Amino acid sequence: MAASPLENQSWDALICQLEALKEIPELSDIVASYLNGDYKVILKNATSQKLFQKLAQFVDLSAEQQPSAFTDGDFASSDVESMQVIITGLAAFDAFLQANVTGPPLVLTNIYTPDGDVASFTEKCLRSLDIDGVSVYQYIPHVEVFCLARMVFANYFPRIVGGNFRDCKWMRVRINAYHQRLLSGMAGGKLSDSVFLQNQIEKDLKNLDLEIMSSESSFSTEAKVQYHLEKAQIYIMQGLDFKAKENVQMAKTVSGFNYALTGALGKRTKFQQNDLSQLVVLAKSKEEDAAIGESSNLTALKESLPSTSEQDKTDGTAPTALDLNDDTLFESIQFAKTSSEKVEQSSLPAELAEMTPDNQPQLKPLDQITLLTEATLKDTYSPLDNLNSEEILPYAVRVLSDKPTNWQIYTQALLVRSRIESHRSRTQERSVLQLQAIVDQIIADTENEETAAANADGIPQIQVTSFLPRAKADESAPVTERLRYIYPLHSPTRWEIETELAFAWSSAGSLVSALEIFKRLRLWAEVALCYFSVNQEEKARQIVRRQLYYSSKGPEMDKYGIDDEEVVKEQWDGEMRTPPPPHSPRLWCILGDLEQDPECWKRSWEISKNRYPRAQRTLGEYYTKQGDLESAREAYMKATVVNRQNDDSWNRLGDIDLRVGNWDGAIVAFQQSIMIDETDAKTYNNLGSALLSKHAELLHLQKANAQDIKASDEIDDDEEVALQVSQPSPKDVLRQALSAFKRGATLAHDNWKIWDNVITIAGRMSPPSFPEILLGLRAVLRIRGPSIGEEAVDIDVLRALITEVITRDRDGGEMVAGIWVPPRGSLARATIELVDAEIVPLITKRAELWALVEKLAMYRRDYAGALACAEKSWRMATQSEGEKWLEDVEAWKGVATATDGLVSALENYGPMERNDGTEVEKGWKTKARSAVRGILGKAKGAWEDTEEYEMLKGRLDELKAAA
User: Repeats (TPR): which ranges (predicted)?
Assistant: First the structure.
């Protein structure tokens, strides 16, 4: 097909042309219908019917055949027909979102009648969405329109136009991301293990990055901000929090949006007397620069689409936020009013410094979404505790405190607040009830009597009972408003939010409510897991087996519900259902978990055509417990081959390789895990252990090779070099191990064992890496010192560190009051600060520590300090444990040594001059004689026949002679 003039245009430019395209007779009706949100009309026109007919053929093909399902002669032989297909695809996806996410109710009956059975066509559409053994929810209303949109943007245009439609590329990202989300929602609440869609999304995103963010890009600022927010939501879904944070920051930068989490004085509780610092988010959108004229494209966009000033006004139509109604907490923080109690300005941007917390300007819709994305990101990846909730909640509160500008944004803000408040006991009740109110609204807005009757195969109909009165038709927001920001919001579908509500009721202690929701949604895996959580394993097993097996009593048993009397004792031990039901790989895994039967996990792997890694991970765990490490390793290898992005699989594989001594395999496995998640301290620690073992192996090989070379005269120089380079250097491997342990210790800064590993490896370096030894020793003292005191000090490590310091030349530094002070940044300076500040305050019993401190003081020429240390060491040795040295020979030897050391210290330091010219200890001889006499007097009768006693007598005679 010839290149279209619409190719390689920005999304803004394409949509801006829709208003102009209304002037083209062939497009006027379809464009007008799309701009008015009348998607049903579009989905009934001739182009849509041809696409539906193609879809009926398309869903019959295998995944391998689908990409080549289209030929150049299909549909679009002109630019007009290309636009008709594009608009049809857009309408199909918007209709799907309206029917399943946003509302208002949409009736799509009779938009297409397949040649065969309608139910069979729907089932084929559902099956076409299966990826690697994971199925989507089987009761999605109007799934065929999603498949139509997916066919248009993910298969038709890439095939016909070669992916040159940039706008279709962006839509392909959106549809693939939504497809991945549909799979993730049915994968046990986690991201689907399939990497196929993830790779497709990442490929398109890389291409779009080059086009959208380039300096020559024709995309508006709003489009760029929306693009980054959509990327952030995709990465949150995929578990890539680092990339998500990066894109939230990019959205903030591109939009010029300023916000900061800070403190402001105020009252939180009704009984609070004084204003205390409260967390608050200050935020301000960038003001429009009137001097910069808008492009014609952007002006056309604002004229052709409902603008922010028109579309986003929702006076009287915003969803209702429930009150807290707590007897202690205020509905919102009561901030102090006086000007002197404004927030601290020093750390805030200039635009926020003069702002008061309770009088902030209105935010733009995309800026509100930025705050909600920030809150979602923090809530998803932060540990669940009250402190984190306090830091995250202000982001949602800032959006809710604004005047509602968009129905869907305000609904999402309520949802985000509900998720955050679920972590606190005083706000959990409102959290659940608010979530219930949102669910009621979504059900009411996506289903009425007509749609419920039309969707007999959709989500089972329920009696809508809402906490709040349903909005009237003229009060409810139109579909164009609800869909305006649906992509950057990434709002959940109806069944997803109902599932979330079920888990919320379960957390609140109402398992019955959770079960009712799961049963109504026919989420049998979740129903089984609920029963298992209350120790009803037999009931859980029965529910799972019913999905996988027929009853031995015949197919008539399928008509009964799970709680009917006829099936209460049914074992469902007939033949296996064929073909396997949707979600069967997951169900087989759950059955394997319940029965601890490896055949179930193997069956799951086979049904998924060897593409469901959860089955192999569970098999690996089972074999590990059984001690069959070879089979476990094989299972984890299969899991990593299918999904190389699961860091847990790599970690388990590395653990097994460590246990069997496969150091190279362990190193590779842990490195792969770190490439996926570089924030796991345990992985770094394990990598360090693997590298350390590899180092020992290399040393052994090096020694063995050296012996072989020495024993053989036939090995020439070239062969010797080859032997040396065939393996990495042990020194390099040890350095890598040290780096791994340091990184792990940095991430888990309160884990003293990892820091101890850092000290050990740094000491093994040749020469030892004393800065790392010092770093590790300081960390261990910080962690263990408060609990075990001086026992946290490794005497050998400290001795080696001090020995290294005192054997170095005194380079640089200065003399202060006669004492040498090493230069800043030197090892000596850091060691002295560590000893003075963190070790000396801990010493209470260990005299050997004072001996080391004495050496350091002598090195600094602090002779008075050195003598004081010797005296303290002597007193500890002689007074420890009630003079136990009078009975214990080893203790006596220690006292004798300490006394000799004190005499030597008095002899060495006593005559030294202080800075003022006086002696350090004028009466040092008397003091020395007195100390020796005291020890000899007490030891007489107990140790007078020992060598140590005679040594002290000799020292006393020397002192007398010197006098």
Answer: 613-646, 647-680
Rg over alpha carbons for the chain, rounded to the nearest Å, is 37
SS3 assignment, position 586: helix
- DSSP annotation of 131: B
pLDDT digits (tens, 9 = 90+) for 738-788: 999 999 999 999 999 999 999 999 999 989 999 999 999 999 999 999 999
Closest CA to 487 of 560, 408, 545, 555: 408
Name the 3-class secondary structure at 817. Answer: coil
Structure tokens that stand for 25 in this block = 């007779």
Bridge partner residues of 356 (DSSP)? 359
Tokens 């204003």 belong to residue: 275
* DSSP symbols for 601-647: HHHHHHHTTS--HHHHHHHHHHHHHHT-HHHHHHHHHHHHHH-TT-H
pLDDT tens figures, 106-131: 888 788 888 778 889 999 999 999 88
Confidence category of residue 75, pLDDT binned at 50, 70, 90 = low
872 lies in some domain: no
Task: Check whether residue 570 and residue 591 sit in a common domain.
Answer: no
556 burial level (CB within 10 Å; 0-12, 13-18, 19+): exposed
- From residue 596, how far is each of 271, 592, 593, 602, 698 by CA, in Å? 55, 5, 5, 12, 41
Please say if the pLDDT value at position 633 is more than 70.
yes
Nearest 5°: the CA angle 384, 388, 394 is 130
Confirm whether pTM is higher than 0.90: no
Residue 248 domain flag:
no
pLDDT digits (tens, 9 = 90+) for 295-326: 333 333 333 333 333 334 444 456 778 888 88
Any idea which of 315-329, 692-706, 729-743 has the lowest mean pLDDT? 315-329
Helix (H, G, I), strand (E, B) or coil at 724: helix
Are residues 741 and 685 in contact, defined by beta-carbon separation less than 8 angstroms?
Answer: yes
CATH, residue 630:
1.25.40.10
Half-sphere exposure of 239 (CA within 13 A, CB side): 17
- The overall average pLDDT reported for the chain is 84
Residue 128 C-alpha from the chain's centroid: 31
Q: Domain for residue 455, yes or no?
A: yes
The rounded Cα 641 to chain-centroid distance in angstroms is: 23
Name the domain boundary from 472, 489, 506.
Answer: 489
User: Which of 600, 622, 645 is at the close of a domain?
Assistant: 645
Q: Helix count (H) and strand count (E) of the chain?
A: 44, 5
The pair of structure tokens assigned to 829 is: 């300076």
SS3 sequence, 292-354? Answer: CCCCHHHHHHHHHCCCHHHHCCCCCCCCCCCCCCCCCEEEEEEECCCHHHCCCCCCCCHHHHC
The encoded tokens of residue 396 equal: 């949602």
- Give yes or no for residue 736 having a pLDDT over 50: yes
pLDDT tens, residue by residue, 871-928: 998 988 888 767 788 888 888 988 899 899 899 989 888 888 887 778 888 888 888 9
Single out the residue of 381, 459, 377, 446 nearest to residue 408, CA to CA: 446
Give the domain extent around 605.
583-645
- Nearest alpha-carbon partner for 517 in 531, 527, 532, 507: 527
Q: What is the dihedral of CA 543, 545, 547, 548, to 10 degrees?
A: 170
* Lookup: tokens for 61: 């093909």
22-54 pLDDT per residue, tens: 777 888 889 889 888 999 999 999 999 999 999
Question: CA nearest 264: which of 250, 248, 275, 254?
Answer: 275
Domains held by the chain: number: 4
User: Both 557 and 478 in a single domain?
Assistant: no
Q: Is residue 892 part of a domain?
A: no
**How, if at all, do strands 329-335 and 258-269 pair?**
antiparallel
Q: How would residue 716 be classed by pLDDT, with cut points 50, 70 and 90?
A: low
